[in-house]
Amino acid sequence: MKVIALLMFLGEPAVLKEHTLMENFGECLAKKRVASRNSNNATYQCAEVQAIVKDGKIISIASN
Asked: Rg of the chain over CA atoms, in angstroms?
């Protein structure tokens, strides 16, 4: 199913380390702004992803 997710990337080259399910892009962008201000070594991105969701949490993201 396609969902909106806040993705956190770490390292060089950037590697996906965490993903969080969001209700909509507005919520995602607000949380991205807060996370970006509080982190100096992670990169955050809001994206629509193909994911497996269980109990309101992303279990895995399909690679394209």
From this structure: 12
d(CA 52, CA 30): 24
Judged on CB neighbours under 10 Å (0-12, 13-18, 19+), 16 is middle
Look up the pTM and report it.
Answer: 0.89
Distance CA 28, CA 48 (A): 11
pLDDT along the chain (64 residues), means of 10: 96 94 97 95 96 94 74
User: How many domains would you assign to the chain?
Assistant: 1
DSSP string, 34-52: HHHHT-SSEEEEEEEEEEE
| 57-61 sheet: strands from edge to edge | 15-22, 2-10, 42-54, 57-61
- Which residue range(s) make up the domain with 50? 2-61
